[in-house]
Amino acid sequence: MCVRCGNCTRVCPGNALRLIGCYYSVETLTEILLRDVTFYRHSGGGVTLSGGECTIYPDYLESLLRSLKSKGIHVVLETSGYFAYDVFKRKVLPYIDLIYYDIKIADPTAHTKYTSKSNKRIFKNFQRLLREKKVNILPRIPFIPGITSTMKNLRTIVDFLSEARAQRVSLLPYNPLGIDKYVSLGRTKPPICQEFVKPEDERKINALFTKIIEERLKRVNVKICKE
Questions:
Q1: Which residue range is the domain that position 217 belongs to?
Q2: 3-class SS letters over 102-114
Q3: CA-CA distance, 91 to 143, in Å (whole number)?
Q4: Alpha helix (H) ranges present in 34-107?
Q5: What is the pLDDT of residues 100-122, one digit of tens each?
Q6: How many domains does the chain have?
Q7: Is residue 18, in this structure, part of any structural domain at all?
Q8: Which of 110, 227, 114, 218 is nearest to 158 (CA)?
């Protein structure tokens, strides 16, 4: 039975196997991250925790974040918002300076179709985080041609952000580089755009999004942020 130790990759004579990713103890990872502390100090930057979805490891995150904050490191968390709120609030939130919060699809049925999960928890968690007022939150809409980029979806998300009293939003450029990972894992490519969006098309969607914000100015007080 495979226990994912990686030993087989080191002895495979044909190099047919390779290990992608490895485990770090909190102490080891902290030491690695602190190697760039001089750059953090001079640039005003810090550590960004991304994914996958790192909030599915709240105990590990809590230990790592405590270690980083004890050194005064600024920490940003990227999340889909699909986490157990009470656990997140207790173990993660106290140590985060900024949250990049992705809101992809407004329609519950479409969200379940494309992500296999309901967006109910995501929307509720976002509203609760805004009420906390203990951390800066930047909601982001990943631009996925034909899925998240529709006028209806963008308008509905803008309305939701307005009702939640969000002050800003960012539209993420589309990046298809992750699609090839499906092939490397023996999976079928998803039925979505597999090329980078052309610059002129990206300008059009940014103009469309700006128009949506502007046409709702009487009801919406949301600022567009650049990535």
A1: 24-225
A2: ECCCCCHHHHHHH
A3: 31
A4: 37-43, 58-69, 85-91
A5: 999 999 999 999 999 999 999 99
A6: 1
A7: no
A8: 218
